[in-house]
Amino acid sequence: MSEERRLAVLRAIVQDYVETSEPVGSKSLLDRHQLGVSAATVRNDMAALEEEGLIAAPHTSAGRVPTDAGYRLFVDRLSSVKPMTGAERAAIAQFLEGAVDLDDVVDRTVRLLASLTRQVAVMQYPSLTRSNVRHIEFVAMGPTRLMVVLIVNTGRVEQRIIETTHDLSTKEGEATLGLVRAKVNALTLGQRLVDAATSLASLADEFEPADRDLVRAIVQSLEDALVEEREERVVLAGTANLARVGTDFPLSIGPVLEALEQHVVLLKLLGTARETSDMVSVRIGHENPFAGLQSTSVVSTEYGSGSELVAGLGVLGPTRMDYPTTMASVRAVATYVSRILAQ
Amino acid sequence: MSEERRLAVLRAIVQDYVETSEPVGSKSLLDRHQLGVSAATVRNDMAALEEEGLIAAPHTSAGRVPTDAGYRLFVDRLSSVKPMTGAERAAIAQFLEGAVDLDDVVDRTVRLLASLTRQVAVMQYPSLTRSNVRHIEFVAMGPTRLMVVLIVNTGRVEQRIIETTHDLSTKEGEATLGLVRAKVNALTLGQRLVDAATSLASLADEFEPADRDLVRAIVQSLEDALVEEREERVVLAGTANLARVGTDFPLSIGPVLEALEQHVVLLKLLGTARETSDMVSVRIGHENPFAGLQSTSVVSTEYGSGSELVAGLGVLGPTRMDYPTTMASVRAVATYVSRILAQ
DNA sequence: ACTTGGCACTCGCTGAGCCTGAGTGCCAGC
DNA sequence: GCTGGCACTCAGGCTCAGCGAGTGCCAAGT
Lengths: 343, 343
Prior knowledge:
Two copies of one chain form a homodimer.
Chain A: H1 3-20, H2 26-32, H3 39-51, E1 55-56, E2 65-66, H4 68-78, H5 86-97, H6 102-117, E3 120-124, E4 133-142, E5 145-152, E6 157-163, H7 171-188, H8 193-200, H9 209-227, E7 234-237, H10 240-245, H11 254-261, H12 263-271, E8 281-284, E9 296-303, E10 311-318, H13 323-342
Antiparallel strand pairs in A: 1-2, 3-7, 3-10, 4-5, 5-6, 8-9, 9-10
Chain A binds a DNA duplex (30 and 30 nucleotides) through residues 1-2, 23, 25-28, 37-41, 43-44, 46-47, 57-63.
Domain Heat-inducible transcription repressor HrcA C-terminal (chains A, B): 103-327
GO molecular function, one term (chains A, B): DNA binding
Protein name (chains A, B): Heat-inducible transcription repressor HrcA
């Protein structure tokens, strides 16, 4: 009973089950794969695989179905990411090139990923905390109201309005504001936002005491932009693909839809990506920490402009999923969207 | 065979069917309502109602189910919007009061509406085209790059960057920019965006010929903000409620999910609200122009700050829906969110 | 020690047949 | 125009038998 053949049997089971959605038996396995052995031998191997917890039978006298552990082994050792054809790559690149701004890039990316994989696509907006500063601008909105505009290298723009005790409409007020603008930009240009905040921490000391509270308020508002978790927006596409799996989906899709609405859950999913060799993370069934997603798998990766990885994207689907192809799509889309954002 | 009694029978059928999700027969109708007549009489009335196309039998020897026309009549003439209790109103107001900014208001509103109605809630972002101008600011981003920031009365902020042939870093450039800023704000403050664009149309003529192309570019970018349909964002909540209807839902939820992803479809739904006496629009089943939504109903209304109605919100659910309660919820939420936005 | 053919057994699925009961339509009488 | 009565219909649920894919195990072969 050779180890290699048993794994070949597991691979064949996974492939057939993904394709047909039906428990696969020893006989039908032989029809579709050249294993070079008899059905009885395959049965023995399957019994051993079941013993190891890699496959399971829904009931006696039915075929076998891979368990979560079986998929895990398949992904880790029995498959490789399926390379995409040049035509596919070109189509992806071309579709993403057409985007006019950041919102459009994100929108196109999720839709593309959903249609490529025919599953639910999830994409996190480029994260502020890991992006870096391109420009910071201050706009007086009234005597004591100031708008702070923060532009980061991914094209995202954040603004917030702060109230000051200073009168900014006076000549002195304007001069102070100009000085703050110059110093802040000099200190932060090109820095990661998290570093920019620390760079600014002692900025107030460089100003005259009368101006310090204004400077502190500005620094505070920039720090706010950092910690504001709520701004970690997530975009979805392809939820209709959940309905497509229809009857063969073990659980109803209700809990899944609920989980998808909790954006904080999705952010956690994308955020806690496991380190793997090719950068694509796969979480299968129960590996998933959230109830309601226990019969789904998540394939995700990070993307970002330049060498900085700034956020996650991925797809979610039934554990019975074509992992090699899905992983290829996720990786390719992440690569191209990163390239677009770098421009 | 009095007309009133026949309508009373229709009302009773709608109410029972909404409550039980099962075709209602003459006998069970008598058990639950005091109609003061015998089952045979009710049967005669039901036969007449069926003749009129207001109810239908899924098959012989089953009870009757209201048709779309039956619901229509019920909504128009047999029901009134159910008043909400003070406690409910207070809870709505309190929940919405907690919002910290516009995004949060929208987010809380859809979630609230979804949980109140236990259906899918849809809300359009306050529309730029019908909002009015609070402030327009120009920020030089570099020698030939200018950022235009538009702030409207709903708190929404739009920005876009334009390239100019002018060198804005010179003294003259700054002076021109200052002049433009002053004139633009003077011309547009408080105006509806659509009017503001026309006000600005001839602005370029007031400037020296050398500056006119700059002014034209700025005006152009503001007009862009108007027509940009893509910016008409729509937010969803409660899609998981679609799964809850489960088996008794005639069609699969796939087509519905697909329609929900097409934001342009949702915008059309919210945009083409019918005029009704109490401002709440109801579209039932086939009245709905979109395939895939033909077995759903949409209850929607407009909301907005002050006297201006700026956008739509509503819910979508199966045609078998508790219309009076749903209409009450939609109306109440629209009222309160309008109040919040007016602040 | 592993593989193979054979064989008995299991058990979910399917379809036919039957029954039940809710519901209807119609009619004759009030 | 309302009512009670009656015959009729038909979807849904139930049982039951047959089928067949699939298994586990065993004895024989290499």
